[in-house]
């Protein structure tokens, strides 16, 4: 990206337009200099006490249904256009199979277990997932507790490791097995939402339908080549080495 191509984003429409144009738009700095919301957003909107900015726009942009959102870039968040998502899924999932190994002894579940719990519920708030794993204590027994999800009585250990769960969720997003369907906020007495918002996790299949991800017999190598071609077209000065890192 050259200086002449620099975009200054001042609205959710402009952010969506930029993400659709490039196909991949990380929130924070990426292997491609200048290709991030942090570098494109108008400085006054990055954190503002008076105006909404990219943090508040995430949910509305996801709901428009043109961009997938999740931690897709080096364990950090960003957008992927739906026309590139099927090939990214094909490549990333082939590269890193979901693990059945117990990921963290603090709650004794694997990546596959966490993915199954979310898939069984279609979508799941991060808070509800933590409650199901015993990381948050509900006021009363909830329908999403593990005894309902797995059919097996499960007693979570007293030592809770939220960092371990976040690492699993990040890995599953990097594998494109999970994405974020929306963000839900606390509401003040005056009716205004506040806080960072709770992520609602789901699978791309649930959110966009299996048909979107069906690319037939295309190999991961062919998907990689297609992604590279698309990114070269919109980022001709980036160089293949940086584009490969972006694709992951």
Structural notes for this entry:
By secondary structure, this protein is α+β, with helices and mostly antiparallel strands. Helix content is 43%, strand content 17%. It has helices at residues 12-22, 37-40, 43-46, 54-63, 85-95, 111-120, 126-132, 146-150, 162-174, 204-208, 210-213, 220-234, 240-247; strands at 24-26, 67-73, 76-81, 102-104, 109-110, 123-125, 179-187, 193-202. The chain has a three-stranded antiparallel sheet. A hairpin with a 4-residue loop joins β4 (102-104) and β5. α1 crosses α4 (54-63) and α12 crosses α13 (240-247). It starts with 11 loop residues before the first helix and ends with a helix. Residues 141-159 have low confidence and may be disordered.
Give the CA-CA distance, first to last residue: 19 Å
Low-pLDDT stretches are: 141-159
Compute the CA-based radius of gyration. Answer: 19 Å
Kindly state the number of beta strands: 8
The dominant shape is globular
Helix proportion range: 40-55%
Mean pLDDT equals 87
Strand-and-helix sequence, N→C? Answer: HEHHHEEHEEHEHHHEEHHHH
Give the strand line-up of the largest sheet. Answer: 1-3-2
Give the DSSP E fraction (strand runs of 2 or more residues). 15-25%
The major beta sheet can be summarized as: 3 strands, antiparallel
Question: How is this structure best summarized?
Answer:
The chain has 13 helices and eight strands.
What features would you highlight for this structure?
three-stranded antiparallel beta sheet; 248 residues; 13 helices; alpha+beta; single chain
